[in-house]
Amino acid sequence: MQIRPDQLEAQLARGLKPIYTIHGDEPLLAQEAGDAIRAAARAAGYTERQVFTVSGAHFDWSGVLGAAQAMSLFAERQLIEIRIPSGKPGKEGSEMLQRYCEALNDDVLTLVTLPKLDYQQLKAAWFTALDQHGALLRVETLERQQLPAWLAQRLKRQGQRVREGEEGQRTLAFFADRVEGNLLAAHQELQKLALLHPPGELSFEQVEAAVLNVARFDTAKLGEAVWTGNVPRALRVLDGLRHEGEAAVLVHWMLADDLRGLARARAALDDGKPLPMALREARAWGQKEKLFERALPLLAGHTLAHLLEAASICDGIAKGLKHPEWPHHPWEALRRLVLMALQHTRHGLPARAAARPLALQA
Q: pLDDT tens digits for 246-283?
């Protein structure tokens, strides 16, 4: 049974499942979900708690099975937590987890915590057993478009809200830009607003004065902004990566790899192959598949060849070489490459701005 983090409170109120499994890469949501399950367990009489951390291939799983089957001398019910930081229980652990799920009893409630899992791990027999015998919560980093609603909901919890209409949307968008990719810091900024201002309506000026710029980005966010043609966001993410100390070589590799994939897909399309086959040849899956579907109609073969040549020049600059027609600093060269790509994928710009080459606007 799979449930979203925002559905957990209602599910716990209806009755506890024998096993809860939290997996994903968002620490704040994972922590809050775990705390909610522990609180519900205590309220239901699971007063004893044992924690097992699976570390390495030589972990002794017999202790976990023994704890689940032994009756406590001090409490009628117990909560057992199984933490697997690597996400890989191993062969023995896989078998033990399946046995564990089959031997559940009403006096034991189990909480399993895992990191973000790959496709093979999600299909493994041990994970399927956890799914079949309990509830799964997937906690992932919120996408930028989800943040304003999440922030509004959190403000409501503490008795605060933004103004109605366009100003309120602008306030939430500003807040989201400041905390993107960093929910733990976003939580702290929300708590700060609760301390600085009484319950009620918050103005844009109050939020602007209080909220620090704690956004965190990764290279995937840059590719997403470039191939969806979002000029302001692409430049903001690029600047964020630079200020966070990301390696210019790594950022270039991501952009160049996307360009090579787009070029393979474009060549396949030009050969008459259907789009799904072209995307498979480009090794574009998941979110990247959607991005490529959007970008490919805007990028002709000669355009991609030109961008790949530019990426080759940028690669040399990132590794210390100079080019007479390009900026000498790696990050400035990356900015130019990003703007060259955005010249073909951008959207929503005024006609006057659209008439000017973006690479010259840098």
A: 889 999 999 999 999 999 898 988 888 888 888 888 88
Tokens of 247: 């390696």
Please state, in angstroms and rounded to a whole number, the distance separating the CA atoms of residues 155 and 175.
Answer: 12
What topology is assigned to 2-139 in CATH? Rossmann fold (3.40.50)
Helix (H, G, I), strand (E, B) or coil at 82: strand
Pairing of strands 135-139, 19-24: parallel
In degrees, to the nearest 5, what angle opens at C-alpha 253 toward C-alphas 251 and 259? 110
Distance from C-alpha of 185 to C-alpha of 181, rounded to nearest angstrom: 9
CB 359 within 8 A of CB 343: yes
Q: Where in the chain is the domain with CATH 3.40.50.300?
A: 2-139
12 to each of 84, 114, 140, 286, how far by Cα in Å? 23, 20, 20, 32
| C-alpha span between 100 and 288 (Å, rounded) | 38
**Distance between CA atoms of 294 and 17, rounded to whole angstroms?**
42
Query: In degrees rounded to 5, what are phi and psi of residue 88?
Result: -130, 100
Rounded distance, CA 239 to CA 255, Å?
Answer: 15
C-beta of residue 219 within 8 angstroms of C-beta of residue 246: yes
Give the CATH architecture of domain 148-210: Orthogonal Bundle (1.10)
This prediction's pTM? 0.67
